[in-house]
Design goal:
The chain has 126 residues and is an alpha/beta fold. The protein is 30% helix and 25% strand.
């Protein structure tokens, strides 16, 4: 953990530099010392079917969901959430400066009893 999941409207397919954005997210969370790098992953999901507001052509959306494991203080979570949203907005500024785009973000802390994973990368980064 954490997992960055970006959903975006298909009309932004050529406008977002996902690898650079993901690198910024990964570099930031690794720099905090709160998250092991072996658990960090990112993905983007293009939404071919969407409607924004009244459906005008050119309206777009980006939603970032950040899932984190249990156990960090509210202060740490707030700090991380604020910085991650700032990074997202920085990357989307060329879009939001020239067109209408709904940008949203939420961080979810997963229940430790209901979260399962198997990750052999942790041994590589010890």
């Amino acid at each position: 953990m954490p997992h960055f999941i970006v959903e975006y409207s298909a009309n932004l397919e050529e406008e977002i530099e996902f690898q650079a954005m993901f690198k910024a997210f990964h570099d930031y969370v690794q720099s905090t010392g709160y998250f092991p790098i072996a658990g960090v992953r990112s993905r983007a999901i293009c939404l071919d079917h969407y409607r924004v507001a009244d459906g005008r052509d050119g309206f777009s959306l980006v939603n970032l969901s950040l899932k984190i494991g249990h156990g960090r203080s509210q202060e740490v979570k707030a700090e991380v959430a604020e910085r991650v949203f700032a990074i997202l907005c920085e990357f989307l500024a060329p879009i939001t400066d020239k067109q209408y785009c709904q940008v949203s973000f939420e961080m979810t802390e997963l229940d430790p009893v209901l979260k399962f994973n198997k990750n052999n990368l942790h041994t590589l980064f010890k």
